[in-house]
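Training component of the fellowship. As part of building independent skills, the fellow (R.M.) carried out the full modelling exercise for a liganded target. The chosen ligand was manganese (II) ion. The inputs are recorded below so that the supervisory panel can assess the work.
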Amino acid sequence: MNIQLDEGKLSKIKADAILLHVFQDEAHFDEHGIEIDKALDGYLSELIDDGEITGKSGEINLLHAMGRIPTERIVLVGHGHTADLTLDIFRANCAEVARFLRRKKVKHVTSTPYSNQDVGFSHADAIEAITEGTLLGLYKFLKRKGNRDNDSSEDEDDDFNTLTLVHDWTDKEGETRIEAQKGITKGTIIAESTMLARDLINEPGNHLTPTDMAAAAQTSADNSALKCNVLEQPEMESLGMGALLGVARGSHQPPKFIILTYKGDPDSDQTICFLGKGITFDTGGISLKPAANMGAMKGDMGGGAAVIGALTAIGKLEPKINVTGIVAATENMPGGNATKPGDVLTAMNGKTIEVENTDAEGRLVLADALSYAQTKNYSPLIDVATLTGAARVALGTVCSAIMGNDQSLIDEVISAGDRVGEIYWQLPLFEDYKEQIKSQTADIKNTGGAPAGAITAGKFLEEFAEKTPWAHLDIAATSMSSQDKGIRVKGATGVAVRTLTNFALNRADN
Ligand code: BES
Ligand code: MN
Ligand code: ZN
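Fellow's submitted model of the complex:
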């Protein structure tokens, strides 16, 4: 997809379609819509008066210009009342209309930015949202499709591939074409980093082993201001990462402890740390999962993918802040050497863990990742994991669960997510929940029974975050989508990439 800027009159430039933004206000159009309406002798106003076009959020209409302007098709997307408009709504509608335009087989679309000082929309913000919405809404995972020529709908040359944003860049004070271009660049970096995470998650387990995941992190580092360091099994052994290694024992694939570092503020000794669960396939181990839908467990590295995606975006946007990303990557397999229910493992911080259920492996690998982060004095710690089916039972697929030991950090993450349309709902970590993970034989056990399963997983992790400000994001229910909706398409969503990126950008700004 090529997103570019141009100037001049929208009505004079020839393309396959013009895309106009419509609002449910007294004034349905900005200056661009008014221009097209005039060029069509008031045709749009007439349709509005007849109630055909309302401007309701998500409403899409297609009209023909009947030769009155060089571009024949005019597509209108509604965004609702401007007073209620958020960047998130705008971005989601841009994604929906991008898929509509693709279904109409248009390749080149001209459109406009939108700005509204009253609701805090600059042209650059709108352009960033248009860019993100278009790229993410059109995303498809085609890497493992064989012969694409058999299905023209999947032929990229025929796809919607050029979006030209037309505007008179000099007419608004303080807003220049350079800032607009920055919106495209930022939106593209963030969308591409999200799509990188989606690609990793959608990739089947045999094509994305821990080794492949480490290679993907290395590739990101090669193309940005990141450094990648991968700890191999012998180093994990000498560091005492018994919990992670306990999970890896059942697999023939070597585990990888992936560390991506970004140093945007060398004068500061503070480093934020994002930690991701990187189970490249979760069979459950000896506590084997049922066969139905086990294939979805190729996505059990969604937290790790979000960390790689966020670091990739940060490494390209280069904010003035230090960030380290850690991915604890391994398979969870039931091999002959696998950890057995009842086994006791010792984590890097010395705590002993009774493994009651080998399918509660995510918290084991994160235990060592959090312990490792302690030794480096990273702060705050934010972990992301497809951790529990219980998160889905509690909250459904509408939002991710957030927990932690520091309310102001939790609030900061929630608001960083809010701005990018990734929503979180906090679950409590009351002390009484700890009862459920008390072990007879070890310091702690890795399961807490059915009640409050997402919380007891959080309670387990809390033991390894210790006193450091820490937040935990359980994305088990949101990492994959069952439908195309807004910026999400069926399959991996790349959720948390944009929250973590925005969190780091906000910290750098303040
Ligand atoms: N990877 C799963 C959680 C999961 C479930 C992610 C569904 C995405 C979709 C995790 O490792 C797991 O198996 N958790 C168990 C924990 C239980 C054994 C305490 C679960 O949720 O059932
Ligand atoms: Mn599991
Ligand atoms: Zn898992």
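The panel noted the following from the submitted structure. Residues 279, 282, 300, 361-362 surround zinc ion (ligand 3) (CB under 6 Å). DSSP finds 14 helices and 19 strands in the chain.
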